[in-house]
């Protein structure tokens, strides 16, 4: 945990180096794909999609700096706060899919209020913990970490519940299209639905993975340790096996959401950015039957017929 140049043992240096290399690789991938997406957007990505991509890139930049130079706990607090922002935006997206348009403004206002609370909490924690070292985890820092991971877990559960409802309704709409497939754009609509279902599944599960790992790790450290030294051992590797385990856990607990965002925004939309090879391996027959232009926006599916 913490910066490479401040590591206090070979094991800590090894863990920081692994995290730095992987985070740098992910950041490079994000920048290259974001450049491609923004150059060829043509309405494919909505404003909130672009915001998610920008926030994900910013988090990975901060994460790379964290593994290189961090010595204050404010770095980790900032990374966790950005994770909460991403999860809150994902909640807004998933809820808006099934919520009536008349209530969207209320939803967005609630989202703005949530972002304000996260910002105020980050400011409060930053002022109180900016002098604390990432290598010494005191009790109030344990409580802060546990609280943030708990809030993230609650948000991810909300996203999962609404995501489950979205997928259910999309499957219903898919069956509706199959029964009423007189429209020439049926195959294209079916492909859009399949893509949207995959995207929603990724979004609803990614938060559970990230904050589930984060919360379990924080809980384990808090409830099974009685002193600061014991708690710190749950985050500082002391053997080769803990180097690998902590590296994996740390990357999962910080990077799952940003990676999920780019899977949804870029990988699921490769074909619409002019790239023919899609990692989801939709059959070529679906591609060949499309009658609408590739640059048409993948809008959220209207499901008024089945409500």
UniProtKB/TrEMBL annotation:
Q: Does the keyword Transmembrane apply?
A: yes
Superkingdom of this protein's organism: Eukaryota
Specify the signal sequence span: none
Q: Does the keyword Repressor apply?
A: no
- Transmembrane ranges? 16-32, 44-68, 74-99, 106-124, 144-164, 244-266
Write out the entry's keywords from A to Z: Membrane, Transmembrane, Transmembrane helix
What's this protein's name?
Transmembrane protein
Q: Which organism is it from?
A: Paramecium octaurelia
